[in-house]
Amino acid sequence: MAGSIEARLQEKGITLPNVAAPAANYVPSVISGNMLYISGQVPFVDGKISHTGKLGAEFSIEEGYACARICAINILAAAKAALGGDLDRVARVVKLGGFVNSTPDFTDQPKVVNGASDLMAEAFGDAGKHARAAVGVAQLPLGCAVEVEAVFEIR
Questions:
Q1: Closest to 122 in 3D by CA, of 153, 154, 87
Q2: Which domains, from first to last, does the chain contain?
Q3: Quick check: helix, strand or coil at residue 7?
Q4: d(CA 140, CA 126)
Q5: 3-class SS at 98?
Q6: CA 13 vs CA 16, 40, 102: distances in Å
Q7: What pLDDT score was predicted for residue 1?
Q8: φ and ψ of 26, to 5 deg
Q9: What is the pLDDT of residue 46?
Q10: Residues 43-86: pLDDT tens digits?
Q11: pTM over 0.90
Q12: Average pLDDT, the chain
């Protein structure tokens, strides 16, 4: 039976995917005490990167926003797997780190990473409000446009 967080996601038409296998020597998540750390998630959809390229060249802010939202969906999938299938164990979203593959003159990284932040607020309400970084980078793994990592407090 889905918990209240998953029910909220389902109402919005969001189905969480299976967690992608790590591409190197790391794990998708680590629980330490009452904190859950989720490794950076890229925009995998059906086993493929949905957005490759740079913001300010190949993608608009709106497309980047959608890409960050996909990363956030993958974060929630990783959190669900780490928490034995129960996203209701999330007490709050503590922090998101957003990395945006950008041209040198692109300065709207925060507007892009809002795609992930807005999804956390939709899913968790006030507990979804978090600290955040939104950073422009020269390149990301597999050429993807956005990568987002997360830290959650858990029950």
A1: 87
A2: 4-16+28-154 (3.30.1330.40)
A3: helix
A4: 31
A5: strand
A6: 10, 24, 30
A7: 44
A8: -155, 175
A9: 93
A10: 999 989 999 999 999 999 999 999 999 999 999 999 999 999 99
A11: yes
A12: 96
Token representation of residue 125 = 């309400």
CA-atom Rg of the chain in angstroms: 15
Q: How far apart are CA 146 and CA 144, in angstroms?
A: 6
CA distance 69 to 118: 8
Closest CA to 49 of 146, 144, 139: 144
pLDDT at 2: 63
C-alpha to C-alpha distance for 122 and 83, rounded to whole angstroms: 20
Three-class SS state of 144 = strand
Query: Whole-angstrom Cα distance, residue 19 to residue 130?
Result: 23
Cα distance between residue 42 and residue 143, in whole Å: 10
